[in-house]
Structures are given as structure tokens and as C-alpha cells.
Amino acid sequence: MDCHVEYDGKFDHKNAVLLIGNPNVGKSVIFSKLTGIHVMSSNYAGTTVQLMTGKMEANKAKVPVVDLPGTYSLQANSEAEMVAVNILNQGGRVIVCVLDATNLARDLMLARELEKFQVPIVYALNLVDVAERKGISIDSKELGRLLHAPVIETVATKNIGIPQLKESIAYFYHASIDSSERLDSSFKTLHDESIDEIVNQVETISTVKQTWIDRIGEAMLRPIPGVPIAMFVLALSLGIVVGGGKALRSLLLLPIVNDFYVPNITALVERFLSEGALQNILVGEFGVLVKGIEWPFALILPYVLLFYFVLSFLEDSGYLPRLAVLVDGLLRKVGLPGHNIVPFIMGYGCAVPAILGTRASTSYKERLILTCLISIGVPCTAQTGAFIALLGDQSILALLFIFILSFGVIIFAGTMLNRWVPGRAEPVIIDVPSLLVPNFSSFMKKIWIRLKHFLLEAEIPMMLGIILAALIFETALIHLLGSWLEPLMVHWLGLPKEASITLLLGIIRRELAVMPLLEMNLSVLQLIVGSVVALFYLPCISVFIVLVKEFKLKVAIYLFLATTTLALLFGGLIHQIGRFVLFLLER
Ligand SMILES: Nc1nc2c(ncn2[C@@H]2O[C@H](COP(=O)(O)OP(=O)(O)OP(=O)(O)O)[C@@H](O)[C@H]2O)c(=O)[nH]1
Ligand SMILES: [Mg+2]
After folding, report:
1. Which residue, judged by its Cα, is nearest atom 32 of ligand 1?
2. pTM for this model (two decimals)
3. How much is the ipTM here?
4. SS3 65
5. Where are the alpha helices (DSSP H) in 179-300?
6. At what angle do helices 364-377 and 396-420 cross, to 10 degrees?
7. What are the FeoB-type G domain coordinates in residue numbering (predicted)?
8. Segments making up each domain of the chain, as ranges
9. Which of 403, 414, 303 has its CA nearest to residue 350?
């Protein structure tokens, strides 16, 4: 029988296999194993915040599969949960309900809610390896008998149980298509046992010696030694990103680009093109073949790579929810319960997934405050790389100043927004998962996905920006732009006229508001002013689009105006104060 589903351009959820379960139970890993499509998985609740779709092979047919955001219940409490519940309400062919073997009682609450849908359910009892580590053993056969459905034990990360799960899905998928009615009602019999009764019958907990990983996991949650550990993790992360990035840049990438690539490409272009505009656009001061390679690959890439290395490790190990517990009190002062630290930290990578990540927040107020703070004061990893390239060699203090200022503004803006934005943050219990040793292959794949994303997202706009800069310099438009912006650029900010280009390029990408300053021989004060302007300057095009999509055009425009005003205000004040201090020092 052919059960191929017609997609008609759009994904056919109603005929799909739906992966459902509480947050952080391994749905996305299972989805990746079923479909061969690698999607993001992390060891905290709320990784998946939108639908992920793919196809799996079932009895030689391609069957659609949907990975849903995790949900604690069908009374959705966040945008992400709402996505899951809405899809579920539309129906599906087979539900794969993923259960966490270390959290059976909690997960059965959702499982029980799913029984009301007239859709066959296959249970994947996942994380059995972690359960074993904790001395928890579950009789899956008995559980299946009590739930009137197949329960398949899985260790998704190691592919254990996945072939059996595939078989079971295929069986019920085809059965549900073959059957003129919905599946046999005996299959869906609601049972009378309470969740406690079921758990008592199937779960045995033996006392095992706590492993070192569980002991560390628990210690991290207490203020002592949790806070010192957090400080150490922060310092180590900074060391890896800043120190490692600098070493990678100056020992490997810059020599390759500057000593090998640039002379050769310049010679090649000069051989074929006579001196003139085209040659300048290709290999001149803002030559696209020179800066278009040096900026993204030699100056930014090392920091992006190492930042994602550190972030992915923190995500996969399960450290971030522990940090969330420690900073909960602090973050609540700016209207954000602790779990919001996760999208906040992601913002230091890129604001787009971070703003999407706020879908897991449980109130609109939280989402809005978090989005505003990320858009206003959190530099993305590419921009941080640009700051390090610009200031790192000149003055570490200046670099530090930029980040301290950004923290100050985030705290101030958060406190104000907490007062102004109506509503209140819902009280939530932070879901702390078991500490895990990251799975090597998914860890590497995750870094690769992010890197690929950066290269695809960054390289083309950066090239376009550089071509634009080259054209503006080549056609003397820079003088026109410089004259228009002279009162602002020269008198208020104390920057040279040609720095006006940064305001134009910064609209395309945030690091482009910084990079041109590298070519301008500026004083340390000017570098600080330029960096401060770039730090608060408007969100890049991609962020603007995501703001409009996730909120409203009005929110995007307000943020656009607020960030630009803040950028010019702070930049100007720092220039004026700096000039005054220098004047006093000289006297
Ligand atoms: N040790 C172990 N780790 C697992 C297993 N299954 C998943 N994981 C890890 O558990 C974490 C959560 O997995 P995800 O697939 O992101 O969970 P999810 O259910 O999609 O989470 P949300 O999207 O937040 O709802 C990840 O760090 C996985 O690598 C397993 O069977 N054993
Ligand atoms: Mg997921």
C-alpha cells in the first residue's frame, strides 16, 4: 500500500507523525535520528520553539514527521507551547510521545492528556541511560500494558531503540491509513489507574552511589560553591573566546590572509586590470576581494567559532539552567525570571535565534523586556569579534569599558522597562536537567550548523556592504555623505567625516558598523566613541525583520529609534567628556 503523503507545497501536519513530550526529553534528537535531518538539541527546556519538519522512511514510504516544541501540558503557557498544542489540535496520524525515564510521573501527566486525541500513540521511553545512572529502572513492558500502547526504551543519542521505534511508528502509521475508522478503540482505552499507581507498578529505584557528575550537578545549584564555579566558568569562557580567538587570528589566519592571500590576489588583479575604479573596488582600500575575505575569515571567524564552541558546550552539558537558578534573584530585578538567561546568552551569539528563543518565556512582558534588552545592549558574536579586533590590540581597558557600559545600560533599561511594561512575569519553576557529558557528534554538528549559518548569513551581506563602501569611496560620495553628517560625526562625535560610512553599513550588519574604523587611524578616544555608537546602533536588517515578525512593526520602529538615539547620545557624551578630561590632563 502506498501511503505517500501529498505535501502540496505545504507540510501536511494532519498526516504526519507528531513528536510530542515535555521539554528537554530528547524529541529533537529522536527527530534527527528518524529523519536524518540534524536539528538543534540542547540540555535545557525550550530548545525547539518552532515546528521542525522532515520525512522518515517507513515501510519503503516517505512519511512526514514533525518535531514540536516541548510542552508541560495542553494548557499552553508560552508561545512555544502554543505552537505544539495548536498542531496537536489539528490532529496527526501517529503521536510519538517521548517520556523522560528520569521523570516518569511528570511526563505521564502530559501522556494522559494526549489520550483524548483519537490518534494512536507510540511511547519512546528515552534517557534510560541517565535513569540507570541514577538507579531508576522502569519495566517498559508493564508500562506499555498499563498505557495500552507500545513503550520502546531508547537512548536516542546512541541510536539505541530507534530501529524498534521506527518499526512501531511505521506499523501504526500504515494501520491508521488502512483503517477506515480511526484505530481500534481497544487501543485507546482510557485506563483507570492513577499516575501514582502506574509509577508505583513500573518504577524501581535502587540506591546507587551518586556519580561524580551528579554530585557536581547538585553542587552547582548551591550559592557556595555555585557562584565561584559560575565565576570560573565565565572567566574560562572569556579566556577561550578572547585569548583563543586572538591566538587563532594572529598566529594562523592573519598571516595566511595578509602574507599569502592578499599579495597574490592583488598581483593577479593588477595583472589583468589596469589602474582604475574597478581595480580599486576589487583590491583597493575597501577592496571586496581583500576586506571581503580578511574581515569575515581572519578577524571575525575565530571569535565566532570559539564562542559557539563554548556556548554549545554550556548548552549540551546542562550548565545553563544551573546558572539560571543562581542568577534568578538578580534577573528578577529587571523583570525576568532566571530561565531567561538562556536566550540572553544566546544573544551574544546572534540576536535572531535569541529573540525566537524568547517564545519559551511564559509572559508577553518577559518576552518584550528580553527582546528589548537583547536588541539594545547585547553585541552579537561578530560584533564582539570586531570590537576585539579594533580595541583588543590598542587598549584592553577600552574593550572592557564597552562591555561594562553595555551591562550598565542593560540593567538600567531592564529596570525601567520592568516598571513601564504592564503585566507581570509569571512565577515559574526552573526545570533543571541532569548534567550530561555532551554527545561528541551532535556537539560538532551543532557547531558546524551555526558556523555554516554564520558564513551564509554573514558573508553575502558583508560582501555587499564592502562593495557599497568601495563604491562610495570610489565615487567620492563619501564626501557628500560626510558633509551631510558633519555636524553629527565631526562636531558631536569627534570622528572623521569618512566614519559616516559606518552608520550606513551598520544597517546591513552590526559588525560593519565597526570594521571600517579599523582602516582610519583613530585615537583611542575616537575608537571608544565609534565602538559605543556601533554597540547601541540599530539592530541589523535580519533582527529588524524578526522583530516585525515576532512582535509588531511598531515595536521594531520604537527599538530602531531608541537604539539609534542611545547610540548617538552616548557616543557624543563620551566624546565631549573625554575631550574635557584630556584637556584637563594636558594642562
Ligand atoms: N544521555 C542521553 N542524553 C540524551 C538522550 N536523549 C537526548 N539527550 C540529550 O538531552 C538533551 C535534550 O534533548 P533535545 O532533543 O533537545 O530535547 P527536546 O525534547 O527536543 O527539548 P525541547 O526542544 O526543549 O522541548 C540534549 O542535550 C540531548 O543530547 C539520551 O537518551 N541519553
Ligand atoms: Mg527540541
Report:
1. 127
2. 0.91
3. 0.99
4. strand
5. 195-202, 212-219, 223-238, 245-247, 254, 262-272, 277-283, 291-293
6. 150
7. 14-175
8. 13-205, 223-427+445-586
9. 303
